[in-house]
Amino acid sequence: MFSLAGPRPWLIGVVHLRATPGAPRYAGDLGAVLEAARVDARALREGGADAVVVENFGDVPFHGEQVPPATVAAMALAVRAVRDELGELPCGVNVLRNDAAAALGLCAATGASFLRVNVHVGVAVTDQGIVQGRAADTVRARAQLCPAAALLADVHVKHAVPLGGGSIADAAADTVRRGLADGLIVSGAGTGSAPEREDLVQVRERVPDVPLLVGSGLTADNAVALLGGSDGGALAAGAIVGTSLKRGGDVLAPVDPRRVERLRGVLDGLR
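The structure corresponding to this sequence follows.
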């Protein structure tokens, strides 16, 4: 199974796919979507990323819990294209907004190493409405389809408000102990927004034996303040980074390998 163990913090770059067939902003050229994904994957690899996650970022507005077959088909082609550029680097998938079943199918069909699930346990109010975690279904399907794929789950995910109350530490404990997630992700309020360091500390202290990732807003400028521990090591196992690796910090722009290199250097200082 994919593991976040290692001597240095992981830098997982994001390939934000352009709109795929069926989405309102699809431009009618899937080849262009795939080529843009290849270019970003190549830039992430050349800049020093450890892994890449592919997500259907351009498919706004997102379906809440089940995407159409056309989306899955396009993402399968995109993941294969990205994997061709990455060589031996791991590749993961995130099917927005919360289609874990589709993500598992993609892992099984493409050999992707991990999936990100935005709402794995509990219930959240999102811009797609009420999104409910389906951990029982997801974990059982994973065992049948792709048992080697790691399940990375968000805790109090961005662009959402959790229902039912409870602290982020309680939610993290439930996500691991009752949802059987292999890793946890803590994000800020939205895309490109950094989480509060205190949220990371609370999750790390409550669930110390499970890898923790920053899920949004990490930059070369805030990485040390956000992740640096008192012992010179890192508070988390690494980060999933999209926006700050793009040209000019524009989430819609291509990946800038120089930005990847700079962040890689900062994270290496937190071994």
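The CA atoms of residues 60 and 105 lie 21 Å apart.
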